[in-house]
User: What shape does this take?
Amino acid sequence: MDHTLRIRPLVSGTLLVATLIAAATACGASDENPLAAKPYDAGDEITSNLPEGDKKADSDRPIEVGVKDDDGRITDVTATDATGRRLAGELDADGKRWRSTSPLAAGHRYTVRVSVEDGDGAPGSHTLSFETGATKKKTLKVAFGPKAGTYGVGQPITAELSAPVKDKAARAVVERALSVRSTPAVTGSWYWVDDKTLHYRPKEYWPARARIDVSSGLAGIKVTDSLYGAPAKALKLTTGDRVEAVTDAAAHTMTVKRDGKVINTIPVTTGKPGFATRNGVKVVLSKEYSVRMRGETIGIAAGSDDSYDLQVYYATRVTWSGEYVHAAPWSTGSQGYANVSHGCTGMTTGLAEWFFNTVREGDLITVVGSQGEMMTPFDNGYGDWNLSWDKWQKGSALRNDAEPERADTVQAARLRPQI
Assistant: This one.
């Protein structure tokens, strides 16, 4: 037997190259590879509970999509309304049925894109569209606050509802629809202050120089049997530098920081016995160049030793009941040494002007070392930061472990203007 290796001569280099090109082309578009094929129209294989023709879908019922073929399965479903709001849903483990899990909005048009795979693995797709019927029931409006602008890092977001929402399940519907996004991102939560008011704050303060976008996806969503969400105007905010003032009532000083660095230490006077300044974290509510303060408005009889009627300048407000940081030229001898005011924080006119021009709404003012009560969370300004993060989270309707600490159960504020 001849074991000599016989080599067949190559006819031409061109033939070899052509053969390789043909092989590569065949691998790139083989009719036998179902994953490379263009998805076929799977309309005849898809079932749904959507109404036919021009009939409107019931927004109170979830939508369902399935496949007829025993060997086929659904691989993906994307449902969105005309605003781009996505409808959440769940796909069964066997891929036979998809069902929406979030509420449909009344009076909205939806587009449902369904992707399937047949028994041979070939991909198919089909798009469904439908409209939900409008509702004539009462609508729930949401107004966000504060107004658009730049604020300090302590500014809470507020949501005021046009109608009370008491049921916890209904509150959860509302809360899920309210979106707060910040750049940089933070962890935060809503708190139900009462049946018509929500506050939102992060776990810590907002980052300095952050962007905050607040919006509602409640439009058309069923809240209760008689209440549906209405469209709401979105809100955009930014934060400035992190400006914090800490008033030590016992040491009679205020230390002001910007982004963690001390920028001023100010001699002050705070509330005297019987009018002691509230301890705790407060947020700048407004700035008023001139405010008239009178003792009679808080029950001090005219002509008594504690009576006063003064025009106060460079007044930075921190409570609705009348606590300010302001110029107090009549008490300069006590500033840095004794507490002689009716609860406000007083300083020289020059320093009050500097402070007035340095802080903005939403900046933080914390009082320590006073004999006064603690700042209440919600009924006298923004005392939100005086609740621990754990207690704050319990004010959310999405928490199942506890009921919120209601604002009307905390100690009422002393509603008196102070100087």
Notes: DSSP finds four helices and 28 strands in the chain. The CA atoms of residues 149 and 186 lie 19 Å apart. Confidence is low (pLDDT under 50) at residues 1-31, 402-417.
